[in-house]
Amino acid sequence: MKVGFISYWSCPLTRLGILRAGGMNVYIVNLANQLGKLGVAVDIYTRSHKDKHAPSTIRLFENVNLIHLPVQNKDDYLAVLNFARIVSDYIDKKNLTYDLFHSHYYFSGLSALILKTKFKIPFIQTFHTLGEMKKRYVGLSDISRIKAEKQITIISDALIASTQLEKNHLEKYYKADPGKIHVITPGVNHHLFRPHDKIKSRRILNLPLNKKIVLFVGRIDPVKGLTFLIRAVGLLTRKYPDFKESINVLLIGGDINSRYFWHNKEVKKIVRLIKIKKLSGCVNFLGSVSHNKLPRFYSSADVVVLPSFYESFGLVVLEAMACGSAVLSSAVGGVQYLIRDGKNGIIFRSGNVADLSWKLYQLINNPGKRESLGKNAVYTGRNLCWEKQADKMKSLYEKIAV
Ligand code: UDP
């Protein structure tokens, strides 16, 4: 079995937590790795990085290649058409054959529509996030995107949803044929994400031993609801001024060494709030942190907070749970399938600053509760792994392939 992954939107090896690079990159790399171990050959097609103009191939894992192909167009819709042609020429030139394509995100899906027609093989689509959800939860309306997603929904041979909720959304808002949607849950790499000793982790990372650490990990994007976290901390420190001395809020994500980062609208909003609430002494932007280092950060934290308005799955929550952290999250998207409120994490009402603030306060002051949540969280996380996901995906490929 040989599969062509289409990853137009972002190279899976891009530094995570910056601009476009997040959960989808982690998903693609881990799925491909596990499929490779199961004997499925995977070629991942992505765009060359800015300075490279010739195709280049990297052997990522056993049976898995990453193929960078150059695309010049600035406009993504034109580039997608061009990308499909470039992938197709490459396949012809190298005389490659695939049993099917698996495309990730809607732009890749648009390329896959063209490749399906050209090579007369099926394609499977994972959207990762849907335009309709961005419209409903973040207020960002992109009609062309939703139209493209509807087209992909109709023409693709199968759709992968990460949760039952995503399946429901595909049926309700995209009128997708229910028989075509397969719920296959992503996983977490348990070899990497496992609990570490808190004190030792803080020493390794040079983090204070005498403070309560509240951690956020993710792309710095309006959908992540970071302004709510800052406002919640502001509320806490107004009520309990001593908190400013004893709390340290760490924000992981974003390219803090680039001036573009500090000119980003969302970043400016967060920075302004930190100033207004006089929190600059206790809130720190750490920038993007390598995936391999994250387990130490999760293990150092007293509370990991995810204040998002929407998450299609919420890998950060699962990673933190696998590391035994006490997680405080809004019950959005896939998160509601991970957290059982009060048992293996705490849920707050999305967008409700007072609720977030109060629950953060309670958790910070209750080490026993944090410990029991963390223990149960590790237990929950054990059931979700990339090995299981790849196994299910392989079975589906075998069913769909011609
Ligand atoms: N991530 C990382 N370093 C960072 C920020 C994020 O490795 O500095 C990873 C994080 O571990 C997670 C992914 O990026 O695996 C974010 O995935 P999630 O599903 O939480 O959010 P998305 O990006 O899909 O919105």
Describe this structure in words.
The chain has 402 residues and is α/β, with parallel strands linked by helices. It has two domains: 2-187 and 385-401, Glycogen Phosphorylase B (Rossmann fold, 3-Layer(aba) Sandwich); 198-381, Glycogen Phosphorylase B (Rossmann fold, 3-Layer(aba) Sandwich), CATH 3.40.50. It has helices spanning 23-37, 76-94, 105-119, 131-138, 143-155, 164-174, 198-205, 226-239, 243-246, 259-263, 265-276, 294-300, 315-322, 335-338, 353-364, 367-382, 386-400; strands at residues 2-7, 41-47, 56-61, 64-69, 100-104, 123-126, 158-161, 181-183, 212-217, 247-252, 283-287, 303-306, 327-330, 346-348. The chain has an eight-stranded mixed beta sheet, sandwiched between helices. A six-stranded parallel beta sheet has the order 11-10-9-12-13-14, sandwiched between helices. Helix 6 (164-174) links the parallel strand 7 (158-161) and strand 8. Helix 2 (76-94) packs across helix 3, helix 8 runs parallel beside helix 11 and helix 13 crosses helix 16. The longest helix is centred in the N-terminal third of the chain and has 19 residues, at 76-94. The protein is globular. The termini are close together. The mean pLDDT is 95. The structure holds uridine-5'-diphosphate. Residues 16-17, 22-24, 26, 217-219, 252-253, 288-289, 291, 294, 313-316, 319 line the site of uridine-5'-diphosphate.
